[in-house]
User: What shape does this take?
Amino acid sequence: MPLLRVDNMSHFFGGLRAVHKYNLVLEPGHIVGLIGPNGAGKTTIFNLITGIHTPTSGNIELNGQNLIGRQPHEIAALGLGRTFQNILLWRHMNVLEHVKMACYSQLEYGLFGAFFGTPRRHREENRITAKALHLLKIFELSEYQAQLVTSLSYGVQRRVEMARAMAINPRVLFLDEPTAGMTPDELNRMITIIRDIHQNFEVAIFLIEHRLKFVMELCERIQTLVFGEIIAEGSPEEIQNNPQVIEAYLGSEDVS
Amino acid sequence: MARKIIETRSAVSGLVGKFRQSTRRIPLLAWLLGWLAAAATEYFVGDAISYYLGLPKIPVLFGCLLILKKPLFIPGVMGYLLLIYILPVIVVARLGRGPANRLAVLLARGSVFIATIIHLGLFYLALHIWADISDYRLLLLKLTMVAVILTLSLNVINGYMGEFSCSHPGFMALGAYTASTITLWLFADDKLFGSPLLSPALGPYLFPLALVCGGIVAALGAVIIAIPSFRTRGDYLAIISLAFLFIVKSVIENLEFVGGPRGMSSQPDYSSLPMVFLGMVSCVWIVNNFVTSTMGKALCAIRDNEMAAEAMSVNTRKTKIVTFMFGAFWAGVAGGLFAHILRYVNPGSFGIQRLAEILAMLYFGGLNSVTGSIIGAVSINIFSEALRPLELFKWIIIPLLLILVMLFRPTGLVAFTEFKVKKLMRPKG
Ligand SMILES: Nc1ncnc2c1ncn2[C@@H]1O[C@H](COP(=O)(O)OP(=O)(O)OP(=O)(O)O)[C@@H](O)[C@H]1O
Ligand SMILES: [Mg+2]
Assistant: This one.
């Protein structure tokens, strides 16, 4: 059974057809890439699956559970973590707090504990602190743990977003242009990090990316989206050699 | 002009730095003992000293009222402040530094709870003795503590959650009327409800329950606002809560069984100093617990970026509604205390002016900070009392002060800090 399955999903923003009859099958442990020109609807697909928008039609299942009509926080708690194209972090919170916050749905104390500081609350807070510290170590963020995110560089902020997404115990991780604005150095580091978490956490990854070197290197399968429609899907080699893809998207860029 | 301001600022910060240097090694415990000594000195020799200094009576509010009315008394008041307050505090704090530090070390090893109780006990004792001098002080102190609860609970909504709510006086009114109805009906012989149902002797013990009921009614009122306001993202709360404030006021005005526009009076005298103190301490403690938990920090995440909070599994809508109810609950409790302090309430006490007062205390003290709310409430309250003799000018000075704070520190005096009890009480030797 696929982990994530999207059938025939379409979405309109008013009269604008942003996504048309989109299908996706994501098997456990796979890495799938989504490429396409600006405005093709890639981010919209992420937002539809994660519940920020509700698709006009179509079906989405995560691990056999229907996602249509669920709130984004429910979908996240079911095991869908994501990052954002335009880095959405919390200005007034430090790095450690970011990662702890994503453990929200795993907290086993209620309002009573929050108000009265019960021993159970302290245990739980300690538990998620330990977990967050562990994640920070994996993402090489330990040195920044007490810093506000606004003081961090772009590349580090991206890593914070990923560490945060991993804290919700995702079975599927969505990465929206994880290397945008990164230096080549940071880019290589990002490839290593993604490989690492893919292996260590048994998480399936679905990523949007503009840098083809990156997609080709990481993904087992690639979808090409143009004007909200998939025009080609296949292995990196197939995509690289697909004339439609070359015409629609790759033509202007350096494929190698 | 600008240079002058900068110069004064650096001079002030230099002074502050020097002061810090000399007091750095004095733990809170020693300060509390110092305050206690000052209060005790005043209690025992205040009358005599004010007589020798040519003052008409003990200056109730550090002599501010006296000086503003009759500047001739300035030297006398200065002498009084020096002898009664400054000297005992400094002497006791310095002398007691060693033992206090040793005790603080001991307390730091044990549970935070016991240490807090001891500190609070000393603090309360000092306040109690200080307030014993005059009824005016007692009243001022109680109202200040109520203001702390109000400011802190509004901070949870307008600060931590980052919404803008205007309905705090409305919640206060709900709490005040509910608690008053309960106490008048159950424990008092009055014209609205007739003879008491229960023995009045039980009253003071069941009063906290009446307060909680007031808080719950206020929280239920909050649900009415919260459900439509938090349905979609946007700035509906300010408008809806303002409307709510007016609705509550006019409903109360038209309810004859709670006195209509005349209000309710002769509530039993249950808001004693320990009671109000307890209310304030509980509020500070619980609010602080909440905002430092990950569950409470979700508010910060929601305020900074709601979409990211949702995507990280935070139930933003529920968090907002619950927090709004939580803030309203404490406003209701404050209202109940307030009604039993003045022992008279009418709908006019809960209007726009009250809202402006609470907002001023909140923004002066600082958003997202428990310490800030305490500082804001205390300083604005004391300040506006101290300036009372200036009459009209008071309403120029206080807004001016607010504008200055907003210019130099847009988020308030002490914004975005965590209130750490342990750090506050730690030994410094
Ligand atoms: N909330 C929205 N309301 C209306 N239109 C939207 C909304 N979000 C996206 N769109 C439109 O949908 C189309 C697809 O946008 P989307 O952000 O998904 O593109 P993208 O493939 O992610 O592009 P990019 O590579 O620039 O990130 C665009 O035309 C965009 O203007
Ligand atoms: Mg995009």
Remarks:
- The pocket of magnesium ion (ligand 2) is lined by residues A 42-43, 85 (CB under 6 Å).
